[in-house]
Design a protein that fits this description.
By secondary structure, the chain is of the alpha+beta class. 49% of the residues lie in helices and 9% in strands. The strands form four sheets. A five-stranded mixed sheet has the order 3-4-9-6-5, sandwiched between helices.
Amino acid sequence: MSDTIDAPGLGERRAVLPTASRSENLRLTFVYFLPHYVKGVFRSRPRVAAFVARTDPARRGLELMRRMRRRHGRGPVLVRGTSGPTLLVLDAEDAKQVLAGPVEVYAVDTWEKVSGFAAVQPEALVASHGGQRVARRAFNDAVLDAGCPVHRLADHFLRVVGEEAAALLGPRAVEGLRPDEIRERFERAGRRCFLGEAAADDVEYSRLLDLLLSEANWMGARRWRTGRTRRIRRRMMQRQARYLSDADPRSLAGLFGSAPRGPETAPEGQVAHWFMALAVVHAAALQALSLLASHPVQYERALAETESADRAHGPRTAAGFEAMPYVRACVQEAARLWPPVPSLMRRTTAETRWRDAVAPGGVNVLVPAGFHARDGERIDYAHRFAPEKWLDGTAERDWAVSPFSRGEAQCSGMELGLQLATGFVAEFLRAGELAVAGPRLSPDRPLPHTFDAARLRIGVRSRRPVEGV
């Protein structure tokens, strides 16, 4: 029998929620919350992340949550979160309730996001609520073409991504490319696509943003650095303003004029988050390339699809991208296996019902996306590379599998991000045979819960000619 508490202010018998024990809270802190925060929430700390990866926190966290579900039952468990009492959602149906619920009740502007984004972009959509969120969401949706499988500027964007990827694929690629080399090219592609060609070589803009994101990891704890942080942000915004005032029509900045806006929109305050999301795209592309390099069956299918799309529509085109659903599914599957955001946080603004229990408003809700995506007690493909599950609708119908969130809080740029990552992966497939060193990935054993990119090297070598040709 699990410990329980009555939800405050609702009467003794109306709402009783399972409560984690002291030992469960302690273990949860050390195997789940702490590793997530020390490796960097807003910007990865590479050395710390590499050290944390060796402890395999994702596996330990999954095992702990599975034990908690067996002990407490299907309903959410009240735990001590990083910012107060938190409902830990361990059932897939409850996860759907949260993600499909209205953001007016399951609000996204949690303490972690508000305090972190205060250093980078206090007007960011993900740190907004109410009327501000409505206005900013409309603007983001319009510029990013949310819900559209192909962005209106896809032809140009795919050409940009292809050019940046191709710049990596010289003799150096045979030896193996490091993640930071690939990240630099992703950032350059992002500056070209988001701010325009004039920003292509503005590495200072990316450096300033990195400094702000590093400070955001502290979530306002280093108050003595506030003045320095404001100066950095002012310098970054001044550089950004140049590109917004004379916008390249082939960039996202060029779409600002036609997007809805109001007094609370703050268009310039949305851009930094797009570059944060680009880091997610970079990670998903790396993971997809690593999986394809180590899974011959999936590699051959992805390669055949890319070659077929190129013959029919030409490389680096929107029509070609639409003809590569399997390559896109490989990126989605990579993000499922190692979610870019393993914890989806919400805060409740009103009472919420969980079967026969009711929780008051004002509590945090945590949907552990990484746990649900790798829950072997629930899904049979939990620990293997299964892109076909995105093609047949299995993964898409499963709301608990949510690498880019779901519902009203789903990332506005999800489709655009998948286009960029797919275009990047396709360029590597065109270049030659993939090889990967570092993570131990194999179709013959369950995939690891933690993807350690620190030692990753991705190589591309010329394909061997077919015998007799």
